[in-house]
Design goal:
The chain is an alpha+beta fold and 183 residues long. The chain has 2 domains: 44 residues, no CATH class; 122 residues, Metal Transport, Frataxin, Chain A, CATH 3.30.920.10. The chain is built from 5 helices and 6 strands. The chain has a 6-stranded antiparallel β-sheet, with helices on one face. Helix 3 crosses helix 5. The radius of gyration is 29 Å and the shape is globular. The termini are far apart. The N terminus is likely disordered.
Amino acid sequence: MLSQKFGFLVQRYIFPAQTITSQACRKRQLFVIDLPRPLVMQQRRMLVTPPPHINVSDLTMERYHALSDATMDTLLESLESLLDDLGNSAYELEYHSGVLTLALGANGTYVINKQPPNKQIWLSSPFSGPKRYDYSQANNKWFYSRDGCALGDLLNEELTRALNRPVNIDLGEAAPHINKAQS
C-alpha cells in the first residue's frame, strides 16, 4: 500500500514526465530510484498585479461619445487656460483624434484618450501610471474602479504637485451641458 502511494506521489508530484510504477518502487524498496534527470521541484507562478477589473457600462454608445467628447473638450479648455497662465514654452498641449497629450517638460507627459470599445477614458500619467476611467452616472464623474479616484481629482492633485501651484480642473460640468443639449 505504501509503495503504491509513494509511487503515485513520485509520479505525480515529483517527476510528472516520468512514469514510475508501484512495481518498480517495490523492486527498489522505495530507497533507490534511478533518475534520468535531476530532481526539479514544481514552481508556482505568483502574480504581482491583481487581475483586471471588467466593468460593463450601461451607457449607450451615443451617450458615451457625448460625455467623453464633452469631458475631453472641458479638459482641453481648462489645460489651455492653465498653460497660458503659466507662460512656460516647455509645456505643450495637443489634441488630435480623441487623444490629448500634455507635455510638461521635465515633469513628464500625460496622455488622455477615449476608448470607445470599453466606454472608458484612459490616462497615462508620469506619476501614477496608466488608469482606466468608467463613467458613473450617479456621481456625474469618471472614476477609476481600482482606487475609486475621479479623473479630475487625480489630475488636480498631480498637476498641483508638478507645477508647484494650485490647479483646479472641474470636469463635473460636462454632463449637465449634455443633458441641456439633449432636452
